[in-house]
Design goal:
alpha+beta; 6-stranded antiparallel sheet
């Protein structure tokens, strides 16, 4: 564990409604950490807006509010998406994921892992690159160009596997294709022998706020079975978006429905 990070969290958790301000001496007494250590950490937190000076004391900064709002939004997306994702996992028999965009990476906030997955683990809480994952590319394709440029300038396009797209022009051509057809693919670009199909999730303001994907070890997912997987993932992402207040444009094809919302055959 990173001790300096643990100390920073301890300092942030010292603040509460009943004790919203601390002097340096108060924090030293409360945490037992040396004043010099506390001062260094507070200066760092202050530079990012997580604490602020109030006279001789410190208080939580506005960045904490933004962070908490993001956490609430992520919980809202997860809770509304979970039933739809569970049905999709049952229908396709593969791993299913839900992600939200971060500053330089995507964050996995919900996962249903298939027993066929090569590595037995939960992805929840993991982060990944935008350019090498279907969920990441599904988000990139609907972000403003300057935001895409900002992300790529921050982290670049590191090669994760021999199939990773590391050329900027090639990535932008793929993003244009994703935007046209409404779904993305990952041909073992982030993990060896892992194939994925992803789709974006939108909110009421028509902004992309996440993405979901189906993932497995068979190349058929992005090969002969692509049409089936794309239909299910796009319709499920569309249903999640609708639960978040999204109303698709009139010219968008909306005949696809999430598994539990598809019309039943006539008796």
């Amino acid at each position: 564990m990173i001790q300096s990070l643990i100390k920073a969290v301890d300092l942030l958790e010292a603040f509460s409604i009943r004790h919203s301000r601390y002097t340096l001496a108060d924090l030293a007494e409360h945490t037992g950490y040396p004043k010099t250590t506390i001062h260094t950490i507070l200066k760092t937190l202050e530079s990012r807006g997580y604490v602020e000076r109030v006279g001789e004391a410190y208080a939580l900064g506005s960045a904490v509010i933004s962070l908490s709002q993001s956490a609430i939004a992520n919980v809202e997306i997860r809770d509304r998406a979970a039933p739809l994702l569970r049905k999709m996992a049952d229908e396709l028999g593969e791993s299913v994921y839900l992600t939200v965009p971060g500053k330089a990476h995507i964050l996995y906030i919900y996962a249903i892992e298939s027993s066929q997955r090569l590595e037995a683990r939960s992805a929840i809480g993991d982060v990944a690159y935008y350019h090498s994952t279907s969920v990441g590319k599904a988000i990139l394709a609907y972000l403003p160009p300057d935001r895409v440029d900002e992300i790529l300038a921050d982290v670049g396009q590191p090669r994760r596997t021999p199939s990773t797209i590391t050329d900027r022009d090639q990535l932008f051509r793929e993003l244009e294709l994703i935007h046209q057809r409404g779904f993305s693919t990952d041909h073992s670009e982030n993990e060896p022998k892992t194939y994925c199909v992803g789709a974006p999730v939108f909110d009421a303001s028509h902004e992309v706020v996440g993405s979901c994907s189906v993932s497995g070890n068979s190349p058929k997912i992005v090969g002969e079975d692509l049409d089936r997987h794309a239909e299910v993932i796009v319709s499920t992402a569309d249903a999640i978006s609708r639960r978040l207040g999204y109303m698709p444009p009139r010219d968008k094809l909306t005949h696809l429905r999430a598994p539990q919302e598809r019309a039943q055959p006539a008796e």
